[in-house]
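Sample pair:
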Amino acid sequence: MPRVGALINGSPQDAQSLVMPFRVGLGDEGYIEGQNVAVEYRWAEGHNERLSSLAAELINLRVAVLATLYGASAALAAKALTNSIPIVFLTGGDASELGIVANRDRPEANLTGVSGITDFLVSRQIGLLRTLFPNGRSFALLANPASANANRLVQITQAVAKSIRRELVVATASNESELDSAFALLAERRPDGVVIPTNAFFLNARKRIVALAEGCKLAAVYDVREFVEVGGLISYGQSTDRFRQVGVYVGKILHGATPADLPVVRPSKFELVVNRKAAKALNLDLPAAILSQADEVIA
């Protein structure tokens, strides 16, 4: 039975939203966990400093394929440790800009996977804030400086804000205590709304982040629906199909494909989720332009 390593910069509590579609993708290629494939999971729980040692554990197990389910930091940690074991990654930012692969159409060495498209997402997320606050003067971004995609994300968001003549306030946090400082800054600067991207730390701390945003009376647009499910206002981002695609690629490699055979995929499925209760708490009337496009409205 082949053995697959799954390096996840998240918590087991979040397994449902990413491991289940990953298993579906494996199943699409004829592999059922526990029947004809074994999967070894390692969870970094939002701590980037753990990724290298966890990747080393999986490599020492001589896994046939290593899947880095979530974030560029996990992919880069695995890439630094092996050039022989195939790696299937999933990133929020652009994989070529992040130095994970040079050629998305024909990946080199032992890596392929699913690459994010930060510029597209940021433009849409800022656009949602602009629809909410057409006369707003400033928006904000909460960034995690420990994320490999942080600098590029800030640059892109600044460019989008400048293009619509809005000031951008950047707050940063990479641990729990810094979250308090970041939201204290936002409370002082009082932007009209904030974009909060997804990384492993933010996802693990999502209940606290949503509560802090609500405490500041700050409208927030998130990357993933998990924030909206715990009381966040709006999410717009890639669907869970990206995790399924990682499973599909792992299955194809188990069947004999090499990473160079499998072009890096850019997601094509996105979803908009809106929380009416959160809008009411902020005294916001959700525009019809947003409600009509929503894939789901949580009452």
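The domain at 3-117+239-269 is CATH 3.40.50.2300 (Rossmann fold).
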